[in-house]
């Protein structure tokens, strides 16, 4: 089916042809009317003629014109038929234009509906995405709060237990700083743990950097503070990104402090 633009062009051409056919019919009808008027005039002249010869002459001329009139009328009838054909074509082209316009309107309506569906789908997907992001953020916030609370509980529990435990000589020793020889041993034990982390594929992790940093902290902190900070870091990474198991935490703790991990309740 042609487009509405093409159908409109076809209709314009059909209308132009119809107008031309109407003009042709009009000129032929005018010709026939003139011939008919001439015949009537000749007949009147024949009736008024003063002599028989003059009347006979007018009559012959009228008869000739009558034959010419018959030909003109046949011509008129032929052009009337052509005009009817042109009118039918115009009607057909007009119907074709209406169909083309309706089809294009339906197509445009389908396209608008498809666009509306796509926009609705996009909005729904965006809404789902934002809700998933919001849920993920809420989970992260909850996990961080839980982790903070767990670390705080662990530190408080450890602080309470470390004062009463048997694996420290006394409270005074726990509060004192490491001596040089002890610092060297602690540093060596930390290096050993870092080597083990490398073998586990955690050499580029934050946990690796945090434990390495403990070498410097051991020079500035008391034994008690050093152990509390170390335990806090291990507990944090055990429940967060590093994904350490309880056995891993206990082993790292024991390798660095040479003491068993105290039970945390």
Number of contiguous helices: 7
Helix content: over 70%
What CATH architecture of the largest domain do you see?
Orthogonal Bundle
Q: What is the radius of gyration?
A: 56 Å
Uncertain residue ranges: 165-175
Q: What class do helices, strands and sheet pairing give? A: mainly alpha
What's the CATH class of the largest domain, please?
A: Mainly Alpha
- The average pLDDT value, as a whole number, equals 79
Number of strands: 0
What is the molecular shape? Answer: rod-shaped
Strand content: under 5%
Give the CA-CA distance, first to last residue: 83 Å
Order of helices and strands: HHHHHHH
Question: What features would you describe in this structure?
Answer:
This protein is mostly helical. The protein folds into two domains: 111 residues, Helix Hairpins, CATH 1.10.287; 93 residues. The chain is built from seven helices and no strands. α4 packs antiparallel against α7 and α6 packs antiparallel against α7. The longest helix has 113 residues. The chain is rod-shaped, with a radius of gyration of 56 Å.
